[in-house]
Design goal:
By secondary structure, this protein is an alpha/beta fold. The protein is 44% helix and 10% strand.
Amino acid sequence: MAHFTQEKLTRQEWEGIEVPLPSNELEILSLIKKGWHNPDIIINKIPSFLSKSKITPSPEMHNHIYHHYFKDQCGGFKVDVMKRVPKKADMIRLQSVLVEEVFETVLLKLVSRYSKASDYNHYTLVHLLKLHVVEVNPHVLDYVKEFLERQTIDMEKMIKNAGTILENNVMLEMYRDIQLYPHQREMFRVFGQKEEVDRKNKLVLLSAPTGSGKTLTPIGLSEQYRVIFLCAARHVSLALARAALSADKKIALAFNAKTPDMIKLHYAAAKEFIADRRSGGIRKVDNAQGEKVEIMITDLYSYESAMNYMMTFNSSENIIVYWDEPTILMDRPDHELHQTICDIWRKNLLGNIVLSSATLPTSILPVLDNYQQRFGGEIIKLNPIILDKNVKLLDKENRVISIPYLYPDYDIMQESVANISIRPSILKYIDIGEVGKTLLYLGVDFKNDVDCTINIANLTSYSLKLLYLDKLKKMTKRDYKRLVDWISTSGKSAFISTIYISTRDAWTLTHGPTLYMTNNVDKIGKFCLQQVKLDTSICANLVANLERNQDIIQQIEQLQRDCQDKCPDDKEAKNEYYRKIGELQKQILKIKLPDVYVPNKKGHMERWGNVGRAEGTSYTSNLDDTDIANILNMDDVEVMYKILLLMGIGVFKYHSSVAYREMLMKLAQFQKLYLIIASTDYIYGTNYQFCHGYIGKDLADISQEKTIQALGRIGRNSCQQEYTVRFRENTLINKLFLLDREEIEAKTMCRLFCE
């Protein structure tokens, strides 16, 4: 329940939201703001030769650049010479450009090494040519296009290597266009940016995959509207607050605000304030003046106060309620927050509403009827298909999941195919490698089976998976039985074992942090600790060494003050002080847990015989000296949790220690932990970057919607690499791709919103 606590922000939380986001995330925020005014905006940061030179484009200039910088790499590809000589200033600009850093060079390098991996290079070149890179040399483009036309495509080889070529293509990820997600474009069009837009109320039902920018969409909406961001998950609200401030948005926060006068403005949103005479900064804000607030962020308990506050300064038609993950806690028949959720819907006076979730129920007709009776608004459903990451699902035997392997029964297979067809977003959990293997086994005629295979430019992971579904759907029972038999005998486990995540199996966790989801977080934490066989006295020794270091540091600081005060001009005396300081500095001990206990550190890998496995990709924690000192200095935390943190393992539960909770969130946010163990309540809206996940045995009974939410926490890294979710019990996998007949979230929503 820690993530759903409705209490005021701590000082540390206030300070946390003011930490600016890194530059790459700031670029995304800038795109979202610009996207409101131009939803079709596409940006590509890769420079062409001409754009990098910052010279005005012209046919003559393109011609000159080609002949002087690229002709030799193009094998003498003939282009008529235009004799116009560039101006001296332009020549200087051209000479300053590094040819190795421009887009044309990327294309030509792929051409030069084409034969070494013709399938990969052909596909990559075709899709690089589709990018919106500005002012690319047209002669280089013509040469590359002509080169590709002369090549013979080995489609079978391409499909065989579909995982690397279509989904984990590092080059396409590196040079990709940056643009809004489809649902963001449509959302901005729905609410409109023009004065003449239809101003009638709108209820937008947004069901988009996790990691597709849903939580950041209010930043774009706030370019014209005032937005109330409503969310039960505290960490999600704080993440938006930080992003909004980084985007120069003026925000207010309603946490445990029983009345509007308890709402707090960020100082940037203050209209009236008292300045500090010494610093000139803002000392006290008048929270009653909210005219400048663009985004109000509120917990569930505070919604009525937030709504009344915003309606004081804005017309109701200019306010959008953006309810993030409204199905939180609706997988339970009863919960203490259910009445609060019911009150929000019943007391709400604002007709512009967005219900945003990765798993928004579809069977909520009573809710829609209730809305129309009250507001008479338009209902808009946004359900985009976004399959940008492939996530492998491994069963408890570590076998990669495929439809025939999961559902050997023909009728159940047909049911699963029908369900996936109407919910294509879950196709990301059908492994592309298994898809390719199956299609090749079936002997697919790539020239006639589907149009996308004729034109490589339209061949994607999604189109290939649709072909896979189509083939399964059209199979006879006899042919399907043969396929099942073949898969059951030809398949093998991806790993021998993945259970011992703190010891011998740690090497299987690569590229980034791992999330272990379970209801019994302490049990898994104790298991991780028991496996390493670490003496708890080590922690006491570390604390003692830390205290010793702190005493030494105090002595050093005193000597430095004495040196400054007592002998400012006596060189010989100063040298004596420097000598004493140097001797003390040598006595400072390195404070850290021995590497043999920290998963995937060098000593740990040597201890468990994992040296050479997953070379350079096995992930480990990254705690600095300050982090370690802060962990050891927490007096109100059990030793077990301290040791686990030093191992790079965080246990997400409601700890009474505020210091521990804030330390955990900070380390998770900056990807300093190797493993996070958390309950399923943690999954909603969590934007941390996990590469692998575990679904614990005790989660076999959670709902299908919550399972999809859990899976959505994995594969959110910007890099293209292999992602996995490992199921410790197969029950959940079996119902993942089938129609959810229980629909507990839908039933609960209808009950709470309509009764």
